[in-house]
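thought: user wants a sequence for this fold. calling inverse folding tool.
action: design(structure=
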């Protein structure tokens, strides 16, 4: 892909660019701890020299390396990403909270966020992680004081994977400089991975107003048969109720439910004729006095993964994933 440099490229693609106002989102491909430290240390030192705060959200072993380099630096905050859980749909709200807390009084903030790409549990999870990276550009487009460096371990030399991640970042960080990424999709574009067909055998139910009880019963029985633990069934029931209610209310009054199991995952899918125009729906924390608009947010908090596909011509498909212990 044009404009996507490999970490081993001797001459970086593109040209350095002067900083522009607004959110700066940079991909930093690296190999090994030494390169990780070189790029992230430089990023942090630039922030400290400019009087900026830094939020670091990286795997524990990488955090330990950086803590050794900045042991007593109060402007650098390390956050525990495991508290967010595995669902990528929770990350925008988490970053909003982390960076807002450190940016009190309008103080500029830099973030270092390394997504756990290699810990992705499935192709669907990996796809949603990429979508999250792209959504950051939309979520923080008007945030004048924020910038984020996204380290990416390219040690496996999978150029296609690096290309896919790169398309979600407007900038590439290399050799201590930021360069425009010609392969960036743009803040208004995103091409989703197609949803695969349900595994057989799968169950199907057409629903309409008044069928919420039948939907909950169907999902509960199928989830139990698939091996979802009993203590997770109430969470699934709440998420299912919220999505089904929204589907009936905004999707033409009816829809189709499908349930099935894949290795280590139970899925239930809602399909209807409605359209969700807001790409951030469900990913930002509802305000305390907000009326409605909590269904997708609750689904992201209660389920292990939520996939949303919605277009004006094909309607909306929402898939809820619940992990099955092995």
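)
observation: tool returned 326 residues.
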């Amino acid at each position: 892909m044009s404009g996507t440099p490999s970490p081993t490229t001797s001459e970086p693609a593109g040209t350095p660019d002067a900083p522009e106002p607004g959110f700066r989102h940079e991909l930093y491909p690296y190999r090994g701890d030494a390169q990780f430290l070189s790029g992230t240390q430089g990023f942090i030192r630039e922030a400290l020299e400019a009087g900026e705060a830094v939020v670091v959200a990286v795997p524990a072993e990488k955090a330990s390396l950086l803590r050794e380099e900045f042991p007593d630096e109060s402007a650098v905050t390390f956050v525990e990403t495991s508290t967010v859980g595995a669902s990528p749909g929770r990350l925008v709200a988490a970053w909003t909270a982390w960076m807002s807390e450190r940016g009190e009084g309008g103080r500029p903030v830099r973030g270092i966020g390394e997504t756990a790409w290699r810990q992705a549990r499935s192709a669907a999870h990996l796809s949603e992680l990429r979508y999250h990276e792209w959504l950051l550009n939309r979520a923080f487009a008007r945030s004048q004081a924020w910038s984020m460096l996204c380290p990416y371990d390219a040690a496996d030399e999978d150029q296609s994977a690096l290309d896919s991640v790169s398309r979600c970042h407007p900038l590439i960080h290399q050799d201590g400089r930021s360069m425009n990424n010609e392969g960036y999709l743009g803040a208004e574009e995103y091409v989703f991975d197609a949803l695969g067909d349900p595994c057989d055998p799968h169950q199907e139910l057409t629903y309409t107003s008044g069928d919420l009880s039948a939907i909950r019963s169907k999902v509960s029985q199928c989830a139990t048969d698939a091996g979802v633990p009993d203590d997770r069934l109430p969470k699934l029931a709440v998420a299912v109720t919220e999505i089904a209610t929204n589907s009936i209310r905004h999707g033409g009054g009816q829809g189709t439910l499908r349930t099935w199991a894949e290795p280590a995952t139970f899925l239930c899918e809602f399909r209807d004729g409605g359209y969700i125009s807001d790409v951030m729906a469900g990913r930002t924390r509802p305000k305390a006095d907000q009326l409605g608009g909590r269904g997708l947010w609750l689904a992201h908090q209660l389920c292990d993964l939520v996939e949303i596909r919605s277009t004006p011509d094909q309607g909306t498909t929402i898939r809820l994933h619940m992990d099955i212990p092995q």
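thought: summarizing for user.
answer: Here is the designed sequence. The helical segments are 32-49, 60-69, 91-102, 123-139, 159-166, 212-226, 233-250, 295-302.
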